[in-house]
Amino acid sequence: MALIKEADYGTPASTSSQSITLDIDGRFVTVPIGTSIMRAAVQAGSQVPTLCSTDSLEAFGSCRLCLVEIEGRRGTPASCTTLAEAGMKVRTQTPKLAKLRRGVMELYISDHPLDCLTCSANGNCELQDMAGVVGLREVRYGYEGANHLNSEKDKSNPYFTFEPSKCILCSRCVRACEEVQGTFALTLDGRGFASTVSAGGESFIDSECVSCGACVQACPTATLMEKTVIHQGQPEHSEVTTCAYCGVGCSFKAEMQGNEVVRMVPHKDGKANHGHSCVKGRFAWGYATHRDRILNPMIRAKITDPWKEVTWEEAIGHAADEFKRIQARFGRDSIGGITSSRCTNEETFLVQKMVRAAFGNNNVDTCARVCHSPTGYGLKATFGTSAGTQDFDSVGASDVIVVIGANPTDAHPVFASHMKRRLREGARLIVVDPRKIDLVKSPHVQADFHLPLLPGTNVAIINAMSHVVVTEGLVDEAFVAERCEAGPFEQWRKFIAEDRNSPEALECVTGVPAADVRAAARLYATGGNAAIYYGLGVTEHSQGSTMVMGMANLAMATGNIGKRGVGINPLRGQNNVQGSCDMGSFPHEFSGYRHVSDDSTRGLFEQAWGIPLQREPGLRISNMLDAAVEGTFKGLYIQGEDIAQSDPNTQHVSAGLERIECVVVQDLFLNETSSFAHVFLPGSSFLEKDGTFTNAERRISRVRKVMPPKAGFADWEITAKLSEALGYPMHYAHPSEIMDEIARLTPTFSGVSYEKIDRLGSIQWPCNEKAPEGTPVMHIGGFVRGKGKFMLTEFIPTDERSTDRYPLILTTGRILSQYNVGAQTRRTANNVWHEEDVLEIHPFDAENRGIRDGDLVSLASRAGEITLHAKISDRMQPSVVYTTFHHALTGANVVTTEYSDWATNCPEYKVTAVQVHPAKHMSEWQKHHRETRRATTQIVKEAGAAK
Ligand code: SF4
Ligand code: SF4
Ligand code: SF4
Ligand code: FES
After folding, report:
1. Which element (helix H / strand E) includes 864?
2. So what's the pLDDT on residue 946?
3. Peptide bond before 797: cis, by omega within 30 degrees of 0?
4. Whose CA is nearest to atom 6 of ligand 2?
5. How far is the CA of 272 from the centre of ligand 3 (A)?
6. Which among 112, 161, 224, 225 is the best mutation to test ligand 2's pocket, defined by most ligand atoms within 8 Å of the CB?
7. I need a surface site. Which of 142, 237, 366, 885 has the fewest CB within 10 A?
8. Measuring from atom 4 of ligand 3, which residue has the nearest CA?
9. Which DSSP category does 34 fall into?
């Protein structure tokens, strides 16, 4: 396998549909109007030297290396900034140009350390390449004069260094930070000889930099360089794969030396990320080889016993025997399984298949239960399928962007950069969020409206916006008449027009001034293409499903569905939330969202799998835990999920897990849930297996194995072994065969195969006979369910209310550097940015309680109490506090409650009534937890030493 080199066309492509023809070095080339001469020259097969331009950035024209001669024109214009014209005659290689270029290059080199042989970029340096291309043989200006050769190196960022002595001031880093990332952390300071790249006058770690690495990727020299490359050297081969963190699903080249990753480089052809990434995907992959990885299967009789390392055969045999024993004693339905949104589609499909075929019940659920299950319910009811409507690129055609209950710059950073680019181009922005997220105001981005609603009042806000649309005559009547069911629409129109749904009537509920809601609604309805993007701030509520339907209603009423630039777009949290839902992980559905009670669908699976299947839906995660507490649920297989940390009401989860007789955890690391496990099966990271992930835009992308599984098997192989031991063998030689089975059994996937994904790069489902290459935008011309259906969305306040005892409302979210329960990111240098979860509290609430910034505080709800440090911040509104849930020791879910979405049981993480007061000591729960973890770590160490 060779290192994949991507072509660089020098400047970005033109989008014009009209073309022109010109003559470059005697060859005729036809290009779209708006194409630079440099790009046309590359297309014509001529190599024009360049240093300051690249096709991912707008041309800048500073290095003067790309000069060309144009017949009939004076001078030697820069080919990167000069547009090609019809009939032009361009010469890129003449003696005059060669002399000029050598002169330019000589100046660069005269202030550049000539340590090429020991430089980390040796062999992959554009300055070195260009010196060769222009034929530089001598440098007449020496180092005696003023130079930058002894400039101090900035090593403050944990992942890359900045070595100013090697900087050629091409400003590619500055422009990448602006144009690609949208952070504007870098500037070119000073003039002439004193010019320097500056991170706002600070070290990188102290600056506004968010460590996305776009500048490192753009730098043509070793000035900005990954520390891994400095330590390990240049990679020698690469493989394209998909990020295992968030639902953006960025495509990467894993650049390798043997079986070791040297760096992850965002893939330019990746259709979700177009060559960009965030700090997690690009840099935070070290967890995959972290020393904490458990590499041998382990078993124990009781959860208080030490773990004992055993062979794979013994561990699998023991788990299967236990499950069989439990079923023989407590009945078929006494065991179940949980699939993971961190695993591949193929692995998820196999877990649900094992549960349905080998366990013989439908007790399978997924962690999507606790994040986006309301999306499935709400979008299926209104549009007919559980999926975001657009591709990410669609945002480039949006005129109005509404962000509700999502924080893209932290949780979906690459999509946020894409969105910010559109906002800089002039799209309008409405942010609906209790907290002042970055998008409300950041460099060159300012929301037109921020509606800081009280947590738990989403449905009231969306109803109020729809009320304005209906009562002010802003309904797209033609769209509704043609595309939606008439009866439900009329019912909805009448309901939503009632005064009680007006912004004025709901102002006291939401806390948002009615005038702002009215103005935002008018902007959404009349501002052109309007798109809604939302996250867990929508779904994780007692009315999560209602809110999803409310947004769908608003989009249908204004005709904002079924074309580019519009739509309802869930921003999925984990890398494969969409896929795990698609693959039939819910207890009531087979893959492709078909109910288990549907006889013809069930018949199809029964025939394919050769075994009778149950027609009644099985248990959800919360039902499993309730049944465990009651003593009727006794065996659980959990793949890649840490429910003891991620699920709400930790005490209840613990109580359930403690009573289960056989908990099998398959994961990379021991985690909170494995404290309750009897069998531990070591899992494999995304670098160790083949498969596919499906991102938030329904895009199925390949995960490719770049190193052998450290513990011996990929996760899909482990599931297949367990299934076989249970008496239901599975015969797959490769995950592609699992995908072939998914395609045979799932109409929306019928056209999907590894061969096609490899050929097209990625595919957005539905992919079938009607759409053989996939479907970027859904519901064009008609909804999946035929006509769109308006649903009534009565606002019903949550039962979780603030009281005298618990007067504040806690809401939760994520931070850029950490991911979910932190199992991966906490094992990387990302901890330098967020080594603990803190409680954000408004200055008013802090002062009332005598709390100062950094104080240890107690956070108590009726469910439990934890302690953490306070961060005083006016991002919060008074009476609302906020924290993240990335660190196990914080135990944020100790305080969240048992309330959940009425339709799907998705927990109400986003609204918990709490009290905060200064604390002197760590909470009892945390003390107990810390001791348990110490004991577990000790047991594992001892097990390792004994071996
Ligand atoms: S790492 Fe990203 S945010 Fe930081 S300076 Fe470079 S481009 Fe800007
Ligand atoms: S740091 Fe690299 S990209 Fe930035 S100006 Fe210097 S050489 Fe160019
Ligand atoms: S945006 Fe998401 S998918 Fe992309 S690199 Fe970051 S974490 Fe990975
Ligand atoms: S590449 Fe054209 S001026 Fe630098």
Report:
1. none
2. 43
3. no
4. 167
5. 10
6. 224
7. 142
8. 250
9. T
Nearest ligand 2 atom, CA 172? 3
Average pLDDT per block of 10 residues along the chain, 947 residues long: 84 94 97 97 94 95 95 95 97 96 90 88 92 82 65 93 94 97 94 84 94 97 96 95 95 96 96 96 93 95 95 97 97 96 95 97 85 86 91 97 95 96 97 95 95 94 98 98 97 98 97 98 98 90 92 98 96 86 94 95 97 96 93 96 80 91 96 94 96 96 96 96 97 97 96 97 95 95 94 92 90 84 84 90 95 94 91 92 83 80 81 91 68 56 47
Distance CA 536, CA 573 (A): 8
Report how far apart, in Å, the C-alpha atoms of 86 and of each of 41, 455, 497, 568 are. 14, 59, 58, 43
Which residues does ligand 3 sit against, CB inside 6 Å?
Answer: 243, 245-246, 248-250, 273, 277-278, 280-281, 413-414
Q: Ligand 1 test: best mutation among 162, 178, 181, most atoms within 8 Å of CB?
A: 181
pLDDT of residue 899: 82
In 3-state terms, the chain is what percent helix, strand and coil (to 5)? Answer: 35, 20, 45
- Separation of CA 277 and ligand 3 centre (Å): 6
- Residue 906: per-residue pLDDT: 80
Q: Map residue 29 onto helix, strand or coil.
A: strand
Token duo for residue 852: 């100062």
- pLDDT at site 538: 84
Distance 573 CA to ligand 1 centre (A): 23
pLDDT at 208: 95
Cα 52 to ligand 4 centroid, rounded to whole Å: 5
What's the token pair of residue 463? 């109803």
Contacts of 863 (CB under 8 A, 6+ apart): 649, 651, 894, 895, 896, 897, 898, 912
Determine the distance separating the centroid of ligand 2 and the alpha carbon of 167, expressed in angstroms.
Answer: 5
Q: Residue 442: phi, psi to the nearest 5?
A: -145, 175
Token code pair at residue 864: 């439990």
**The predicted structure's pLDDT at residue 947:** 43
DSSP conformation class of 187: E
pLDDT value for 929: 65
Ligand 1 center–CA 184 separation, angstroms:
8
How high is the pLDDT of residue 225? 97
Ligand 2: centre distance to CA 311 (Å): 52
The Cα–Cα gap between 451 and 463 comes to 14
295 in Cβ contact with 682 (< 8 Å): yes
Compute the residue count for the chain: 947
**Is any ligand 2 atom within 6 A of the Cβ of residue 197?**
yes
Determine the atom of ligand 2 nearest the C-alpha atom of 176: 3
- Spacing, Cα 51 to ligand 4 middle (Å): 6
| Closest listed ligand to the CA of 279 | 3
Report the nearest atom of ligand 2 relative to the CA of 51. 8
Q: Which residues, 6+ apart, have CB-to-CB distance to 795 below 8 Å?
A: 457, 459, 460, 463, 501, 506, 509, 543, 546
* Residue corresponding to tokens 């979210």: 813
Q: Are 298 and 292 in contact (CB under 8 A)?
A: no
Contact 725, 316 (CB under 8 A): yes
Which residue's C-alpha comes closest to atom 6 of ligand 3?
278
